[in-house]
Structure formats: C-alpha cells, structure tokens
C-alpha cells in the first residue's frame, strides 16, 4: 500500500492540463513560498536597480553555481545503476559543458561575464567567489553525492520554477541594461528550452518513486533544502554588495577582474 493514493488527492491542474495530485501540488507550493524569485536581490536585478558592480558580483558568484552543476550531475550519474536513468540524465552535462561542435552553458555564462566588463579568465578562476556561495553550492554537490537517489533527483526540481525567473530576467535585463542583448543573455534563452525537458523527466521520476508518506516527506525536504541553497547565495550577495556592504576577505571587489 503506497501513500500515493492517500496524498495524491487531485486538486489543481498541471501546465499540461492533466489533473495534479496532492504530492505534486505540495512540491509546487514549496516553490511558491521559497523559490529565490522572491529574494530582494532578484527584484533589484530584474528591476534595473542593481548597480553595475552588483551585477558583476552576481555574475562572479553565480559562476560557481554554474561550474558545479555539471559536476553534481556527474556525481549523480556515477551512483546510478540503471542505464535508462543515466541516459536520461546525461544531456544535462552536455547542456552545460557543450560538445565539440556546440557551445554549452559554461561558455555562454562567460560571454555574459565579458559583456558586463569582467575578464572571463578571472571569473572562470573562481578567485572572487564569496565563502558563503562556495559553502552553499558545495553543500548541494555533497547532498547529491550522498543522499538516496530519490532526494538527489528531488533536489533538482527547483527547475520547475526556473523558466519563469529566466523569462523575467531576460525581459528585465533587456529593458534596463545596455550590456543586455539577445547574444549576451543567450545562457538564459537556452535554459528556457533545456530546463522544462529536464524537469519533466525529474518530476515524473519523483512522482513514480516517492510512494510512501516517508518518501514523499524526504523528497519535499530535498526540495526545501535546494531552495535554501539558492536563497543563501543571494543573502550572501546582499550582505556583501548591497546592505551593509561587508565584502568578505578574498571576495571580488569593485575594480578587480575587469577585462
Ligand atoms: O537562474 C536561476 O534562477 C536558476 C535556477 C536554477 C535552480 O532552480 O536550481 C538553475 C538554473 N538557473 C540553471 O540555469 C541551471 O542550469 C540549473 C541546473 C539546476 C539543477 O539543480 O540541476 N538548477 C538550475
């Protein structure tokens, strides 16, 4: 007897027009309450109120997240015994690393770095990353490496909420900043196509594998954990570069790493 029948009560609809179970609705409500689109740093950035140095600080720090995503996906795949699951997962690594003939997200992020006036080699070196960013992102990689596969997959489901923030970011940056062009924001445009494919698979996998109430609680906790990984990165940026502006020793300072 799985807990699914008990918890998947059937309220609301998915974007695909299918009835949504209570467990899926619970996962989605975590995003409504906790996703980092609600963070004031994003409101500053998307509303055109971030200074160029605040944008640069975001680009430098967010690089660390970008650079670790394919590493966490490789860590995940190294633990998977089912070839079908590995096959479904591996495009995530190519989306970021690219192929011999196609650029990936990592290169696109460095194009954005150049567009905001940063030296891409400096950004790629990771030298200016804040300690709190590093701790939060490393916690995500460790989580995916160590937790049961159900939680590892569930922790990626923040991507359910990412297309909305990417669309808002593209529109907001294009409206407010000279550096923003379709080319320099290509990273986010590509994610609009990549994330839905990944998350449709990940969500179905979690719905299929979280059968008992305990498993559903564990999957929901994984998603909460991930929202905290994202939130903590923006809290660190706010503290360092907005209010009160305490830049930690060793972290990027305005004027450094310019091209
Ligand atoms: O800009 C964003 O707000 C945002 C959020 C997230 C996310 O929700 O974790 C990802 C991304 N972007 C992203 O670009 C990306 O490649 C990505 C991969 C993953 C993941 O957990 O595997 N999340 C995200």
TrEMBL record:
The keyword Oxidoreductase applies. InterPro entries: Haem_Oase-like_multi-hlx, PqqC, PqqC-like, Thiaminase-2/PQQC. Residues 25-235 form the Thiaminase-2/PQQC domain. Its EC number is 1.3.3.11. It comes from the Bacteria. Pathway: Cofactor biosynthesis; pyrroloquinoline quinone biosynthesis. Coiled coil: none annotated. It catalyses: 6-(2-amino-2-carboxyethyl)-7,8-dioxo-1,2,3,4,7,8-hexahydroquinoline-2,4-dicarboxylate + 3 O2 = pyrroloquinoline quinone + 2 H2O2 + 2 H2O + H(+). Keywords: Oxidoreductase, PQQ biosynthesis. PANTHER family: 4-AMINOBENZOATE SYNTHASE, PQQC-LIKE PROTEIN. Ring cyclization and eight-electron oxidation of 3a-(2-amino-2-carboxyethyl)-4,5-dioxo-4,5,6,7,8,9-hexahydroquinoline-7,9-dicarboxylic-acid to PQQ. Belongs to the PqqC family. This is Pyrroloquinoline-quinone synthase. It comes from Rhodobacter calidifons.
